[in-house]
């Protein structure tokens, strides 16, 4: 950069847009005075030490009055953009070490600026004075973005024109980030004070002179701690979710903690381990970089759990202070595929167990892991409200980490372990097992390390092991004991199965099961669907299909005592009995399971009412009435009431500054009593942001959470973030589509909500006449004009600052999103548009409307697709499916029938046992 004073570079066009404070920037300016700006060059040489104007949206590693006019001291300012693998790998290593939950991130771009050996203004009055060297690197993968500050040598803080004397005093340098919106900024502690002289000795990553921050979202996230963190602030936890298996460390940051004479207790409020389960935390880093490492034990509840750290500090021999801070961690069950450890049981010709082969990828362990132990963990779930680890059985000691080990159980004699789940004992129907290969000698509690020290399998193969390893007669006896025990007959209150695959595919209350689940538990079935949310009593419904019809043969679906959202109770009440009764067992034995967990054949199925919204908002009510409403604000899609508990609000706003004659959906919020509130909103950077009770859910990090189950609902997120499926226990379901820059939605309502809905989706009662009922109860005629619908119906459903359910960010409020004075165009004439538009839309009115007002072919195509899907949904759900009367089980026998369609064959069998 040319030598000068108070100068900025020419604008640098960036190869990849840089996300900063929830905005994307494709140009930046490097300023001599220790900063970078994104909207215009910086003209000020004295740091503001207060929020800056919008034109100065900026990153400042050391904003102070730098002077490089004197060429005699080998000083200079250098910058470069890089896509070089070496630079990217170095940045990636720094970021992953600072933010462990981002392990796997692939950075694509880095911009590096170095202020080398620079002095303060006025160098002409004091040549050869004190010199500073520091560097800033900003980097991104296109979604996440980061800033890394390196301070090599800091000897001055203030220029002469900033009232400094000999480089000190006056208004010292500041370091940090400012969005330029008066609200969002983060300054490194000590900014604008003499403490800036020590910034090379401090750090937020426990490495003197190094500071790392995540900068893409509205709140800058420091890799370290915050000195003004209070007990009402929410802890940051990395990684943000764990499995029920636990056995990992999480990194908890927020308050700056004095490690000396302090201890930390970590508590997780797991309802099945009341009141909580706790472990000893470990403080790492110095004061500015302090974090707490919390070991996570086995957990028995999925969903969002409260994590608390209790910091006890001994002030002196007679005084101790305690500070308690809280955050949330999300807990999921382990994948059906396990977690990297595979196993297969081999049997001898006589049916006895010969051996079990374990395989794994040795490189999944930390580099240098030479040996592992292989063990079976046995959980006692007999009291599901208080599960415990019954035993840990080590079956392989100091096994070489080569990726394969054979457990020759048949050859073991003296050291043959006793496996409690393979002896006939009715109490052992309450056991669950998991397999683990763990690094030999590793102790998670004393080694705060986030890399992989173990692999496990608590999924299908662990369940299959019980079926293969235990003698058939033992499993049959266990099945008999379960069948005749009290409390195994269930009361079914789940949604009945759709009788055809066509209906299952469009009923939003159901979602496809994992293919591996289907292959193991329902061999021969084409596909199975699972009720998305638990029933009011916690049950579930599993529906399997063959040749596009419901199939209730021996391998078909079942009603479930406990929905899979409750993995441990589901295992004990539904999965383990199936292993005992049906896995490689005779049909007669399996019939006992089917009697207790009957397959629903769809005879009582009543389809839900579909609704949807798309494009420049076009809506179909639950009764099918189609209309268009271009509101600019937040509106009630469904208003809750004393007879309907679900509240749904939508946000509508113009697509952009030029397409302002119509609006699109840009956000939704869902609330049901005694459950967490879900907020989904459009993001320029991340496609979509999801908030749970106002806290952002991490859905963009590598291996981030894509399925979340909580009391009252379950949410399934598409891997590419194109769709978000939410099912509610009370019988509503929604799917939000996020593509094309404009959200759309599909909805379904169970028939029991007929006559009980209010809002933009109308009064669901099978009659369209009252669908345009305003909030004050006035019914608007169905043949009303666009303007009449807008003014007399749509606007009446706008929320207020008191009734809104939305949380607001970036300093915005309800007033920023709600504009009742906005008037869209009401003069649309589809006949006046170009032939190109008509051809693009195949003469579809809604598509033509959207393309005309937005100019977006993507939104127009989304509308066509939504129309097609909606019409297919209505057709499928309205089909009448005739079934024969249900058969009764014979005395002293059982029968097998796939379904009750005409032509289906029923096979009756006499009991032989």
The gross shape turns out to be globular
Q: Structural class from helices and strands? A: alpha+beta
Give the distance, in angstroms, between the N- and C-terminal Cα atoms.
91 Å
DSSP strand tally = 49
Protein model, in words:
The protein folds into five domains: 12-222, no CATH class; 236-332, Immunoglobulin-like, CATH 2.60.40; 342-470, no CATH class; 484-605, no CATH class; 609-813 and 820-830, no CATH class. With 913 residues, it is α+β, with helices and mostly antiparallel strands. Helix 2 (460-469) packs parallel to helix 6 (567-581), helix 10 crosses helix 11 and helix 11 (845-854) runs antiparallel to helix 12. The protein has an eight-stranded mixed β-sheet with strand order 14-16-19-18-17-20-21-15, with no helix packed on it. Helices cover 14% and strands 32% of the residues. It has twelve helices and 49 strands. The mean pLDDT is 91. The relative contact order is 0.07.
In short:
This protein is an alpha+beta fold. The protein is built from twelve helices and 49 strands. The mean pLDDT is 91.
Keywords:
single chain; 913 residues; alpha+beta; Immunoglobulin-like; 5 domains; eight-stranded mixed sheet; 32% strand; disulfide bond; VWF_type-D; transmembrane helix; C8-3_MUC4
């Amino acid at each position: 950069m040319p030598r000068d004073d108070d100068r900025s570079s020419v604008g640098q066009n960036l190869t990849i847009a840089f996300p900063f404070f929830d905005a994307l920037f494709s140009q930046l300016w490097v300023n001599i005075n220790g900063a970078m700006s994104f909207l215009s060059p910086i003209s000020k040489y004295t740091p503001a030490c207060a929020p800056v104007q919008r034109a100065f949206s900026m990153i400042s590693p050391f904003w102070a009055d730098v002077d490089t006019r004197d060429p005699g001291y080998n000083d200079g300012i250098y910058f470069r953009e890089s896509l070089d693998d070496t630079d990217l790998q170095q940045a990636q290593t720094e970021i992953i070490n600072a933010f462990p939950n981002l392990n796997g991130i692939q950075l694509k771009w880095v911009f590096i600026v170095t202020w080398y050996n620079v002095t303060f203004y006025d160098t002409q009055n004091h040549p050869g004075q004190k010199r500073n060297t520091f560097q800033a690197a900003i980097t991104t993968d296109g979604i996440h973005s980061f800033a890394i500050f390196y301070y090599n040598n800091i000897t001055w803080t203030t220029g002469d024109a900033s009232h400094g004397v000999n480089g000190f005093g006056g208004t010292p340098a500041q370091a940090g980030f400012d969005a330029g919106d008066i609200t969002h900024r983060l300054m490194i502690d000590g900014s604008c004070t003499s403490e800036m002289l020590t910034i090379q000795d401090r750090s937020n990553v426990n490495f003197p002179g190094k500071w790392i921050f995540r900068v893409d979202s509205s709140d800058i996230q420091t890799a370290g701690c915050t000195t003004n963190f209070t007990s009402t602030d929410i802890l940051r936890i990395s990684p943000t979710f764990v499995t029920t298996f636990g056995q990992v460390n999480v990194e908890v940051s927020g308050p700056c903690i004095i490690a000396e004479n302090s201890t930390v207790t970590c508590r997780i409020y797991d309802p099945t381990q009341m009141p909580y389960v706790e472990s000893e935390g470990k403080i790492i880093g110095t004061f500015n970089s302090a974090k707490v490492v919390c070991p996570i034990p086995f957990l028995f509840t999925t969903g969002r759990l409260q994590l608390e750290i209790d910091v006890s500090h001994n002030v002196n021999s007679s005084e101790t202070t305690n500070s308690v801070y809280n955050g949330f961690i999300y807990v999921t069950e382990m994948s059906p595929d396990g977690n990297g450890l595979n196993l297969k049981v081999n049997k001898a010709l006589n049916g006895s167990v010969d051996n079990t082969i374990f395989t794994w990828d040795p490189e999944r362990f930390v580099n240098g892991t030479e040996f592992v132990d292989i063990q079976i963990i046995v959980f006692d779930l007999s009291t599901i409200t208080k599960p415990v680890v019954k035993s840990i059985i080590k079956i392989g000691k100091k096994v070489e980490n080569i990726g394969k080990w054979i457990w020759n159980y048949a050859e073991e004699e003296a050291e043959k372990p006793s496996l409690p789940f393979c002896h006939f004992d009715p109490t052992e129907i309450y056991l669950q097992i998991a397999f683990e290969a763990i690094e030999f000698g590793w102790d998670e509690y004393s080694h705060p390390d986030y890399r992989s020290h173990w692999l496990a399998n608590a999924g299908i193969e662990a369940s299959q092991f019980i079926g293969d390893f235990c003698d058939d007669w033992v499993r049959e006896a266990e099945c008999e004991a379960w069948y005749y025990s009290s409390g195994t007959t269930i009361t079914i209150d789940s949604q009945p199965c759709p009788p055809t695959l066509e209906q299952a595919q469009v009923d939003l209350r159901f979602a496809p099961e994992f293919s591996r689940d289907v292959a193991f538990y329902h061999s021969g079935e084409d596909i199975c669907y699972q009720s998305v949310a638990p029933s009011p009593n916690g049950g579930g419904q599993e529906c399997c299909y063959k040749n596009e019809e419901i199939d209730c043969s021996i391998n078909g679906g079942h009603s479930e005592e406990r929905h899979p959202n409750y993995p441990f109770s589901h295992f004990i009440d539904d999965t383990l009995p199936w292993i005992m009764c049906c896995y490689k067992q005779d049909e007669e034995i399996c019939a006992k399971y089917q009697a207790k967990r009957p397959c629903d054949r769809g005879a009582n199925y009543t389809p839900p009412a579909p609704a949807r919204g798309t494009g420049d908002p076009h809506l179909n009510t639950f009764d099918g009435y189609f209309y268009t409403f271009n509101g600019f604000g937040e509106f009630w899609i469904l208003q809750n009431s004393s007879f309907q508990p679900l509240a749904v609000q939508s946000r509508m706003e113009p697509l952009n500054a030029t397409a302002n004659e119509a609006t699109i959906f840009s956000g939704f919020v869902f609330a049901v009593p005694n459950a967490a509130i879900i907020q989904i909103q459009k993001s320029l950077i991340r496609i979509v942001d999801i908030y749970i009770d106002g806290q952002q859910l991490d859905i963009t990090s590598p291996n981030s959470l894509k399925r979340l189950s909580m009391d009252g609902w379950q949410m399934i997120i598409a891997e590419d973030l194109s769709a978000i499926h939410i099912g509610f226990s009370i019988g509503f379901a929604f799917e939000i589509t996020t593509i094309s820059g404009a959200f759309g939605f599909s909805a379904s309502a169970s028939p029991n909500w007929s006559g009980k809905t209010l809002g933009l989706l109308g009064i669901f009662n099978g009659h369209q006449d009252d669908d345009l009922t305003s909030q004050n109860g006035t019914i608007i005629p169905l043949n009303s004009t666009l303007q009449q619908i807008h003014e007399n119906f749509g606007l009446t459903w706008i929320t207020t600052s008191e009734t809104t359910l939305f949380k607001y960010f970036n300093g915005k409020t309800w007033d920023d999103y709600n504009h009742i004075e906005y008037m869209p165009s009401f003069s649309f004439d589809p006949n006046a548009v170009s032939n190109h538009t008509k051809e693009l839309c195949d003469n579809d009115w809604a598509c033509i409307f959207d393309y005309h007002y937005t100019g977006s072919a993507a939104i127009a195509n989304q509308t066509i697709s939504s129309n097609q899907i909606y019409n297919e949904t209505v057709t499928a759900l309205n089909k009448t499916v005739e079934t024969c009367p249900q058969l009764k089980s014979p005395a002293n026998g059982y029968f097998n029938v796939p379904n009750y369609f005409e032509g289906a064959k029923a096979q009756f069998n006499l009991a032989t046992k």
